[in-house]
Specification:
The chain is an alpha+beta fold. Helix content is 20%, strand content 30%. Strands 10-11-13-12 form a four-stranded mixed β-sheet, sandwiched between helices. A three-stranded antiparallel β-sheet has the order 1-2-9. One of its GO terms (molecular function) is metallopeptidase activity.
Length: 362
């Protein structure tokens, strides 16, 4: 079944992307001929509060310790006026020490019972006794009549239950490479010519650092430790300077070079893919940033080619972003063109369309 903490993270992330507060596995599995499926409970909105709880309050210093995490979460909940708690098994450090993501179940949504060891299967016990879901607190006791284990039982209406393909859940544990965003000044526009004519190596294997990215002819993309943030129409924002963070562009699977220029001779510039997962966007300062263009060029960075239709050829599929700017579009709330995302065939090409959503004629 794999590491327990990983299973909890996957269930939580799946739930969040689908409009639920959180989720947890019931650790039942089955295979009806189309791959392994895993039982998962999904917590509806409105039944819990969320907190980042300091690791020190948990008293558990290894997130892989699932029983310890569950016991500590339950104790924290009871001590703070809640009925139960579900850790999502994500951790972070925002500068003040490690914290654990924790969902605290509001009063009136669960019941608690001590279950004899022989009847412990939490999911089976909960369903057979008329509840929607259950999970163990991992606390145990013996009051003289044998070992019992604590169980939290969820009322109907608080949760949903799904059998989810295991390989779909595993996708939430796949960590993609970071995406680099490099913001450039008007004086840096000559890099476009260098890249378009392949005189500058920006391939994924190149060992580059934000501050010291030397260009052909002695030019520099960014020559200071403080990144240049162009005016807001680009919509591109760079956080911590990469030089200070020690970030290398070679660590990024895709890199976007964004320019705002005020040169009237704009016909010398262009935007598009330059290969190696790198794309360049060049905009006049006065031009609104277009989501359709950005998504199209980033599709190239992900490896997608222009889409086609049988009647119109390349750039002819009006329902797929890789045919921009011929796609159906609408003005967003700022008057910019916004169009479709990737059509099903490109979602499948990217590995973003799970087999459970694809019907194939037998």
């Amino acid at each position: 079944m794999g590491p327990w903490d990983k299973r909890f993270r996957e269930a939580h992330d799946y739930a969040r992307w689908r409009g639920f507060l959180s989720g947890w596995p019931n650790f039942d599995e089955a295979n009806y001929g189309d791959g392994v499926i895993q039982g998962t409970f999904l917590l509806h909105e409105g039944f819990a509060d969320w907190r980042d709880v300091p690791q020190s309050e948990y008293g558990v210093f290894h997130i892989e310790d699932v029983p310890g995490m569950m016991r500590a979460a339950n104790d924290y909940a009871v001590g703070n006026g809640y009925e139960a708690s579900i850790p999502n098994f994500h951790q972070a450090n925002h500068g003040n020490g490690t914290v654990y993501g924790t969902f605290l179940i509001k009063l009136g949504n669960t019941d608690f019972i001590d279950v004899p060891a022989a009847e412990l299967a939490a999911n089976d016990y909960g369903v057979s006794h008329g509840y929607a879901a259950a999970f163990p607190t991992f606390h145990e006791a013996n009051y003289g009549q044998g070992l019992v284990f604590g169980l939290k039982l969820f009322h109907h209406g608080t949760t949903a239950w799904r059998d989810i393909p295991a390989d779909l859940l595993h996708n939430y544990s796949d960590h993609s490479s970071p995406i680099g965003v490099v913001l450039c000044r008007s004086s840096d526009v000559a890099i476009w010519t260098d890249m378009r004519q392949q005189r500058t190596d920006i391939s994924p294997g190149t060992d580059l650092i934000h501050q010291t990215y030397a260009l052909t002819g002695g030019r520099y993309l960014v020559g200071s430790t403080t990144p240049t943030v162009p005016p807001s129409p680009t919509g591109l924002i760079l956080g911590t300077p990469a030089a200070q963070a020690g970030t290398k562009l070679s660590d990024c699977g895709q890199v976007i070079f964004g320019y705002n220029v005020n040169n009237v001779d704009i016909d010398k510039f262009d935007h598009g893919s330059v290969g190696g997962g790198r794309v360049v966007l060049v905009y006049l300062d006065t031009r609104l940033f277009e989501p359709t263009f950005f998504a199209h060029e980033f599709g190239h960075a992900l490896g997608l080619a222009h889409s086609s239709s049988q009647l119109r050829g390349p750039y002819g599929d009006r329902f797929d972003i890789m045919s921009a700017m011929n796609v159906w579009s609408f003005p967003d709330n700022q008057g910019r063109r916004a169009g479709p995302g990737a059509a099903a065939i490109n979602l499948e090409n990217l590995g973003w369309l799970h087999r459970s959503r694809i019907w194939r004629h037998q």
